[in-house]
Amino acid sequence: LISQVVAVGKRRPLTIRQSLAIGSSVFWPVLVIQALLRGVIFGLFVLLALVSLWHFGGSLAIFIVLFDVLMAAMIALSFMMRFATCGVVLKQSSLTESLVQSWQLFKKHWLLCIEVALLLFMVNVAVNFIVVYVVTSGALASASLFGTFLFPVLVSFTVLFIVFVWIELLLVVFNWTMWIIVFEILTGKKELLTSWLHRTFRRQRGQ
Predict the structure, then answer these.
(1) pLDDT in tens, 49-75
(2) What pLDDT, on the 0 to 100 scale, is given for residue 67?
(3) CB contact at 8 A, 136 and 142
(4) How confident is the model at residue 132 (pLDDT cuts 50, 70, 90)?
(5) Among 104, 81, 103, 107, which residue's Cα sits nearest to residue 29?
(6) Alpha carbons 82 and 85: distance in angstroms, whole number
(7) DSSP code of residue 58
(8) What are the E-state strand segments in 29-187?
(9) Mean per-residue pLDDT over the chain, rounded
(10) Given CA atoms 57, 63, 66, 67 in this order, what sign does their dihedral have?
(11) Of 110, 144, 173, 184, which residue is the least packed, with the fewest Cβ within 10 Å?
(12) What tens digit of pLDDT does each residue of 17-45 get?
C-alpha cells in the first residue's frame, strides 16, 4: 500500500507482482515495528488504567502529571509507528534507523503531527456518521419494504454490509495516504510543510 501510493503519485503505478514483492521484502521489519510499538502502547494503556484506579491520597497533582505523561507517550508512539513503517518501506531503513528517524521527525514536527491527526479524526468522524446514517436508513427501509420476506432482506443487509466495509477500507487507505504524503514531505530536502499554529504565531509575532 505505502509503495503503491508513492508510485501512483509519481505516475508509475506498481503491478500486483511488484507490490507483493516489496511487501514480502519488508514484511518482518514492519511486523516487528507494529508489534513492538503497539505492545508498548497497550502496556501504557494498561498502566494508565491502573493509575486511574489508584488512590493518590488526595494528591490530584500527581495523578494529573502521570496521566498527562502516559497520554503524551502513547500519542508519540502512535505517530512514531506510522513514520517508522514508512521509513522501512520507502527509505529501506533498518529497524533501528527507522525508529530513530521516526522519533526525530516527531520531536521536530510534533505540533504538525497533532494537527494532521485532528484533521483526519474529524474527516473519519464525519464520514462514519454519514455512512452509519445511510446504512441504518437503508436497513430500516429494506426491513419495512420487504417485511417478512427473509431472502430480499438478507440480500439488502449483505449489500449494505459490503458497502460499509468497502468505505471503511477506503478510509484506511486515505489515512495512510495522508501520513505517507506527510512523511515524504518532512523527509525531503526542503521544508514545505509546517504547522498551521506555528505559522500563525510567527505571523502574529512578526506584526
Answers:
(1) 777 777 555 566 777 777 788 888 888
(2) 77
(3) no
(4) confident
(5) 81
(6) 5
(7) T
(8) none
(9) 77
(10) positive
(11) 144
(12) 666 666 677 777 888 888 888 898 888 88
Helix orientation angle between 95-146 and 196-206, rounded to the nearest 10 degrees: 110
For residue 41, give the H/E element and its range. Answer: helix 27-53
**Cell 512523511 belongs to which residue?**
183
Which backbone phi and psi does 191 adopt, to 5 degrees? Answer: -85, 90
Angle between helix 95-146 and 27-53 (nearest 10)? 80
What predicted TM-score, i.e. pTM, was given to this entire model? Answer: 0.73
Number of residues in the chain: 207
C-alpha cell at 179: 501520513
- Reduced to 3 states, what is the DSSP secondary structure of residue 10? coil
Answer yes or no: are the C-beta atoms of 120 and 178 closer than 8 Å.
yes
- C-alpha cell of residue 196: 498551521
CA contacts within 13 A on the Cβ side of 137 = 6
**∠ at Cα 92 (78, 95), nearest 5°?**
50
**DSSP tag of 190:** S
**Model confidence at 183: pLDDT above 90:** no
Cα(85)–Cα(135) distance, rounded to whole angstroms?
33
In sequence order, which residues have a C-beta less than 8 Å from that of residue 109 and are 6 or more positions away?
186, 195
- Supply the pLDDT for residue 122: 93
Backbone angles phi, psi at 52, to 5 degrees: -65, -30
